[in-house]
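thread from #wetlab-drylab

HS: before we spend reagent money on co-crystallization trials with iron/sulfur cluster, can we at least see a predicted complex? here's what I'd submit
DV: go for it
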Amino acid sequence: MTFKPMKFLPDTLTTAPPTDQWDHFVELDAKAWPRRVRHEMRCIPTICFNCEAACGLLAYVDKATGKIRRFEGNPVHPGSRGRVCAKGPATLNQIEDPDRILYPLKRVGPRGSGEWERIGWEEVLETLGARIRKALEEDRRTEVMYHVGRPGHDGTMERILQCWGIDGYNSHTNVCSSNARVGLTFMVGADRPSPDFAHAKTIMLLSAHLEAGHYFNPHAQRIIEAMANGAKLIVFDPRLSNTAAKADVWLPTWPGSEGTVMLAMARHIMETDRCDKEFLKNYTNWEATLEHLKPGTPPDSDVFFQALLDQYAEYTFERAAEESRVDEAKLREATEHVADCAKALSAHIWRGPATGNLGGWQIARAMEFICVLTGSIGTKGGTHPNSWHKFKPEAFAKPEPQTMWNELLYPQDYPLAFHELSPILPYLVTKENRIDTYFTRAFNPVWTYPDGTAWIELLTDEERMGFHIALTPTWNETARYADFVLPMGLSPERHDIMSQETHAGAWIGFRQPIGRVIAEKEGRDVTFTYEVNPGEVWEEEEFFFELSWRIDPDGKLGLRKHFESPYRPGEKITIDEHYRWIFENSVPGLPEAAAKEDLTPLAYMRKYGAFEVHSDVYEKHLENGFNTPSGKVEIFSPTLHEWGWPEHSMPANFESHVAHAQLEPGQMVLVPTFRLAMLIHSRSANSEWLYEIAHKNPLWMNPIDAERIGVGEGDLVRVATPIGYFVLRPYITEGLAPGIVACSHHLGRWHQTQDKDASRWASAPVDVKIDGDIWTWKRTGELEGGQSDRGNIWWAESGVHQNITHEVHPDPVSGMHCWHQRVFVTAAEPGDAFGDISVDRAKARAGYEKWRAKTRMPPGDLRRPLWIPRHVKPAESAYKLPAQKLK
Ligand code: SF4
């Protein structure tokens, strides 16, 4: 492999040394200039852990000290191609954070009291091994749960839990993306779009994808390339984001109206006869759709096209303009760009409208419908199922699926939810249906989830929550309520394999612990990664291998065999053997590429950190069809029809809970779903550089609303949600439509005085009081400020926490928490202070009950349609409903 300079740079400039010099090169110390101070260096690749995009990082290591001097992009990574965002280099801050947790901690006072003592890994393993072994021996296989915030790996923990024979994998997906996933799966059988942005003629974004989207840097660079080549950009966003500012057509649509707008686009494309009829005839379930629309009609494609047009007759531009409050002319202009896409429409939806709205999954279906109508599926520049572009290698032994079903994860009354009902977990766990052992991993629901006080109640209730282990690289509001806090590695301190659908190809990236790689290059023996990481920071995979042996030391439970070496029968697998097997057996082309360089596959991955498995992946449907029950794109969804939602079996508008008709007089819509490109949900708090760039989350508000409420910049406003309120400053701007307010969700970290390890530049001290059902937070000071180990913390503000005041809104189909809130915004009241928060637990519980009542039970005796995906999918026998149904 040879190093190629990046496309936009002249050949004489490089962004990294050539790969053949990665083991040794000399650079001059920039800070020492004009003195020529030389450093002997090496580069070791790893994968960024600061969002899901999995960009390639290069650690620049000073050979004299063994210390990492900086992180930059890995130029041979096929997804990120040498580029990174601010969060990649900020990894250096995170590993050097003076406030990070370096050793395992055990609670010594009452749970939540903030009193800890340092313990060793041996005590951790013995305690947890015995506890889980007892649960398995007593067949309490739904009482052990692993709950992940940022996964950072593909399938590792799913396999480990399935080896244990439990049904205990919980994720954050239902506060993140499941509405988009569910909508797309019903239509194309894949849960994410994979747009070929770089070759698109028209790009349509229903998230701020260019600026802060899901695969932010890999997608953003390709969107910019396409625009440089003349592609047109359409952005749906009520807020003038940096992405919207780049758009050819910005559609500041009212939240929840996006589906109606896209169906009006669809109607116009059909009416003007510009849809791809060949694609519709060959690759969609048009016959079933026609039978649904006109029962008994003989299958005739011309009749189908007319029936489809009739179906959407009500979606006029006039209606779309009224619901979205966007000029009809703008909607028509955007539609012309879409209709002219020449089968090269790249569209993406992730957070934003899918995540904010009741029925957001129908917005995702409307977007996919446009891609289908324009024939942009499988084409160069089109929008593809993500399964074409993500590569998932298999580990050496696959366990049998578990035979039980965990109602705490997938309750009966959400039969179409593909993902765990984690937003309502605190309400599902009872004394009778309790959790014995609960791992949270890079997960901070007290702060990131809506209705966080319900989480505090659950985590402090030892009858419902037996033992809580917080696996976390940083201190957080949830770790406070743990029994063990176990320090886990950041991107240069752990192994993982990652793959994401960044473009029309497929790759894997290899995250690796830099200290361990250096030690091995220098011939030092390392048994466990924590021996070479800072303090005793470990990595999950090795920890769980060890823990699995402690659970089943003699193999009698039958799980130990899954953790025995494929190379040394009967002995414990090592982390090297685990990856050696995968790279030798499960990644096509990798052994051959490695052999050309006289390397083993593992050595190849340690050297380059990434491998391109496939390139130019288009038109896979010609061979394999789509992963739906019919094998076709399902415009009409028989699944939705048969499982309780016949009125939504076609793409249609689903009236959002924030539609105009749902608001009381004076009520506004709070859009809390946008993020700042330089922050990471709750983990940016241990990066001083990132907080120096962004540390405020004021309330965006149109001047018309500010005048009505009677506030100006510098005043305080109170935002009252259905269950409480928070107090902050307004940011008055015409970059947001009247009637809507918006607040970024990354800021407002807090700690109580006992939390010694809270980040000093990010987390404000608070006093939390509980008076009956009323909980209040009052700041007892601002940030400590002053000098950090690195420099001057000149900012005192760190934003306001809003999520804890949000009512929980589980969508009755997907289970997704629908983030937008109906709020009243007023000038602050006497006694209000910046950062005040109040929550009424009684109202929070009533809100949960109101939303849960929207669900519909399964029609037959199965819990779920068998074809829909599920994390850690159990055996078919587990899908049978018990005789005693929930209601
Ligand atoms: S987009 Fe930024 S945070 Fe995300 S993986 Fe890439 S460099 Fe890291």
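DV: The first strand starts at residue 25 and ends at 28.
HS: ok that's useful, forwarding to the group
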